TrEMBL record:
Residues 19-115 form the PH domain. GO terms for biological process: endosome organization; endosome to lysosome transport. GO terms for cellular component: early endosome. Pfam families: FYVE, PH. The gene is LOC112458831. PROSITE patterns: PH_DOMAIN, ZF_FYVE. This is Pleckstrin homology domain-containing family F member 1 homolog isoform X2. CDD domains: FYVE_PKHF, PH_Phafin2-like.
Amino acid sequence: MVENCFGGSGQPLAVPGRVLVGEGVLTKMCRKKPKPRQFFLFNDILVYGNIVINKKKYNKQHIIPLEEVKLESLADEGQYRNGWLIKTVTKSFAVYAATPTEKQEWMAHITKCIEDLLRKSGKKPVEVHAAVWVPDNEATICMHCNKTQFTVLNRRHHCRQCGAVVCGPCSNKKLLLPGQGNGKAVRVCLQCYDAASKIKAIPTTAGDGLNNKDPQRNNSADSSGGDSSGDEDDGNKEENHDEPKFYSTLGR
Ligand SMILES: [Zn+2]
Ligand SMILES: [Zn+2]
């Protein structure tokens, strides 16, 4: 059923031994603003996508292997309540449930799945996770130099190491980061670059065009940015609240 709801836009999901543990709508913090996303928790993966027609059609499917997930509870802050971080090697983001109980249920079920998986495989939890990106609108000036005002020409860039929103000149260096860039160095802010240079990470002076003089290129550079692509488009805006459903009990 889940596979069909994603239609041709999704991956095959039916795998022997895979079980649907729960499903529901969570608000996901995207690069620009929080947006509703449909989540399916299986015993080994977390799948989410945009809602085209509630309970019928989803697209922009993302699949996260639970083995590399770490959860981190977030304190309530203004309009952002009942949230937690979903951290993985390749991307990390915040999600928000409608009520404290639902947050608790989601976190408990996901945690249980991760524990069961790691116990079965004998693997260790992944220690390195991608940075959570600061949302664009939380920075009107560069978080590194505190000078550059962001405009249409002075585009925002995200440091892949710390997630800060920084200007082009303050992010003209690159580093190899595990899980990101497919083996290529990715954009980092000068602070993270300097910190990594002191310890012995593998700094690569951007010989491949990041600190060149071509503003065109610098301005478009962030379009490849991890999570920012893909699931930014709005599905329909579904305001009424469906409670999440969980199909497994937490044997504790
Ligand atoms: Zn700057
Ligand atoms: Zn940084």
